[in-house]
Design a protein that fits this description.
- It is a single chain.
- The chain is an alpha/beta fold.
- It has two domains: about 120 residues, DNAb Helicase, Chain A (Orthogonal Bundle), CATH 1.10.860; about 290 residues, P-loop containing nucleotide triphosphate hydrolases (Rossmann fold, 3-Layer(aba) Sandwich), CATH 3.40.50.300.
- It is built from 19 helices and nine strands.
- Strands 3-2-4-5-1-6-7-8-9 form a nine-stranded mixed sheet, sandwiched between helices.
Length: about 500
């Protein structure tokens, strides 16, 4: 026979809260904003109607005192249930000090959350006992989400004074000054100019890397993950929803060894290439990079696995998700539009970054409308279902390659009258070197805590590798831009 579930409560705290609300206007405002009727236990059935009457008065901006609350209870026909007015004066007489209001509110709220958690656990147990579980994974993730939703209520913070926050900032400055970080306050991106703009990937930030299909966004995200793992010697998690872990690792080895990926895939390696591949394998094996390539991953799976990785490796410094477009949610049976689903995904990933105190990089696709932009340059509006993504993201990196469109036979022109002039303008030389090099423009279109701008990287497509451009190549670009602007010098 199942043991009766005894739910926690604290009647003294509940009565102290109600009594203080009856005596003190600020306390009434605190109680109404922080609590609900259901936060009061049903052990003393008088407390909920009293709170309801106070809430009704507060909603109408009416004064709250024993007399007005009694009148409201009569209006609501709850005066007998609340044993008013006698019980109201009992509550007032038990008040010790209005200054303790926040303390008692916290006790009431904590007990309410604990009761809700225990009831939810009992509900999960009953679902299991019913024997109607269709899929174990869905059941586990559903149970985890239910418990997490309740637990998140407990994490509400309180106001901190400017003095407290200022001291924390001062201490952080001293820590950063003592550290040799070359201006970085976050995780090294691996690229000099991008580090200048971002100061590294920052804790609790959601970073979006967006581009058209086959633009190179997955390769860049993978380079970010590997760079972080190698340069920080800390744990990095990479979720690959589209490629197997073997394919991901082949790309990493190609990028680190400078051996074409197709050679690695078919195993046709020269002796020199085999040595380079072995060196790359040894290098990657020493990192703390962890890859999950579960197909058709649910949003709950990703958050649960990331949370588990953080618990297992407290030095987790970066999470990368490739990519948002194929993340599934538990929306079956719900009338969710795709925009609502994307909003849930982006807000959940932002919440994950904050809860784990790590940056989260997410790969996204741009919509087809980018092809009708001037120069086919992407903007924030080209993010698929862009509203929620743009709102939740702290940084947005938009990718563009001219040769991507040239390979499709598309010329970049801004209009009939300008076509001839544009063709006659000098163009920078293609980056030299092996690997089918290409110029990638990374537009840091949004940077919540820093400046925005354009960064140039060299994309070696055969290796899935990105590098900073050489100083000679950048000088040539600067000279061409100077000529195009009409600044011909002396």
């Amino acid at each position: 026979m199942a043991k009766a579930l005894v739910l926690p409560y604290n009647l003294e705290a509940e009565r102290a809260v109600l009594g203080t609300m009856l005596l003190d206007a600020p306390a009434a405002a605190i109680g109404v904003s922080a609590l609900t009727e259901n936060d009061f236990s049903d052990v003393d059935k008088r407390n909920r109607p009293v709170f309801k009457a106070i809430s009704e008065l507060a909603a109408r901006r009416m004064p709250v005192d024993p007399q007005t609350v009694y009148n409201e209870l009569v209006t609501l026909k709850l005066d007998q249930e609340a044993e008013a007015p006698d019980y109201l004066y009992t509550l007032v007489n038990e008040v010790i000090s209005p200054e303790n209001m926040n303390h008692y509110v916290k006790i009431v709220r904590d007990h309410s959350i604990l009761r809700e958690l225990l009831l939810k656990m009992r509900e999960i147990e009953e679902d299991y006992s019913s024997g109607t579980i269709a899929d174990i994974n869905d059941f586990v993730m559903g149970a985890n989400n239910k418990i997490a939703e309740i637990a998140n209520r407990r994490s509400s913070g309180e106001f901190q004074s400017a003095a407290q926050i200022s001291v924390a900032v001062r201490e952080n400055i001293e820590v950063m000054r003592a550290r040799e970080h070359n201006g970085l306050t976050g995780v090294d991106t691996g690229y000099e100019k991008l580090n200048v703009y971002t100061k590294g990937w920052q804790k609790e930030e959601l970073i979006i890397v967006a581009g058209r299909p086959s633009m190179g966004k997955t390769a860049l995200a993978l380079n970010f993950a590997v760079n972080a793992a190698i340069r920080t010697n800390q744990t990095v998690g990479f979720f690959s929803l589209e490629m197997s872990d073997i394919t991901v690792m082949q790309r990493i080895i190609s990028a680190r060894s400078l051996v074409p990926g197709e050679h690695i895939q078919v195993g046709m390696l020269t002796k020199d290439e085999l040595m380079k591949v072995n060196d790359a394998i040894n290098e990657i094996s020493r990192t703390k990079l962890y890859i999950d390539s579960t197909p058709n991953a649910l949003l709950g799976d990703i958050t649960a696995k990331a949370t588990t990785l953080k618990a297992r490796f407290p030095d987790l410094c970066l999470i990368v998700v490739d990519y948002m477009g194929i993340i599934r949610t538990n929306s079956k049976g719900k009338n969710y539009s795709r925009e609502q689903e994307v909003s849930l995904i982006s807000s959940s990933l932002k919440m994950l970054a904050r809860q784990l105190h790590v940056p989260v990089i997410v790969v996204c696709q741009l919509n087809r409308q980018v092809d009708s932009n001037e120069g086919k340059r992407p903007g924030l509006s080209n993010l698929r279902e862009s509203g929620s993504i743009e709102q939740d993201a702290d940084m947005v990196l938009l990718l563009h390659r001219d040769d991507y469109y040239e390979s499709q036979g598309t010329k970049r022109t801004r209009g009939y009258g300008q076509q001839q002039q544009q063709q006659e303008q000098p163009k920078p030389k293609k980056p030299t070197g092996p690997g089918d090099a290409s110029v990638m423009n990374v537009n840091l279109a949004k940077n919540r805590n820093g400046k925005t701008g354009n960064i140039t990287l060299i994309f070696s497509k055969a290796y899935s590798r990105f590098d900073d451009p050489t100083s000679e190549w950048e000088d040539e670009i600067a000279e061409i831009q100077r000529r195009q602007s009409g600044d011909l010098g002396d």
